[in-house]
Design brief:
alpha+beta; about 20% strand; 5 strands; elongated
Length: about 200
């Protein structure tokens, strides 16, 4: 119904903002993004989703279309309402969340208040196929991590990092940051990935 609202940012809190447009103040619930907002009194464009139930109507807003799209995917998951979806997007960026879903990383998703292991597994189960069908993004599980002989080395390195207490997505990100990983053996890649964890 309302794709976006562009107006003056009048108020900003941790979980909501008020934007004035043509004399009307829109109270919009948001994920935590106060550090990314413009200054009060400046022009602001927020992508919105109107959530309607029998007992309530809410307007939810995001700074990017990507965040809005992810919010809409999240609230389609059984057991994930708007508040839980906002909590997820306050805990993880869209890129981090996609990475966690595609790498079956329940540990990172469980950092969200109110989302336990069962909820995280259900979220991954419901969204993984949808995300895999999207156009690939450069930074989300790059395909070159899983090409030819390098696949076994990457898999073993991920397992080693997970055994050290890192999450799947943390492991994949650190491996992805290693230059020349295609020609490394497991031990060399593990050492290089650990250095990326430290720095």
């Amino acid at each position: 119904m309302i794709s976006y609202i562009k107006g003056t940012l009048e108020e900003a809190a941790i979980d909501s903002i008020i934007i004035e447009n043509n004399g009307i103040g829109y109270d919009i619930k948001t994920p935590t993004m106060i550090d990314r907002l413009p200054k009060l009194g400046e022009l602001c464009k927020i992508y919105t989703h109107m959530y309607v139930r029998e007992d309530a109507i809410g307007l939810f807003g995001f700074l990017t279309k990507e965040e809005l799209d992810m919010f809409q995917l999240l609230i389609a998951v059984n057991g994930i309402g708007p508040k839980a979806a906002l909590a997820v997007l306050s805990t993880l960026s869209v890129k981090e969340l996609k990475f966690a879903i595609l790498s079956d990383d329940t540990k990172s998703i469980c950092k969200t208040p109110g989302i336990g292991p069962k909820g995280a597994k259900r979220l991954i189960l419901d969204l993984k196929d949808k995300l895999e069908s999207e156009e690939p993004e450069e930074d989300v599980l790059s395909a070159d991590l899983f090409e030819s002989a390098a696949e076994d080395v990457v898999t073993m390195t991920v397992q080693a990092l997970v055994s050290l207490g890192y999450s799947n997505s943390e492991a994949y990100r650190s491996i992805q940051a290693v230059e020349g990983r295609e020609s490394m053996d497991t031990e060399t890649l593990l050492k290089a990935a650990l250095k990326k964890m430290i720095f």
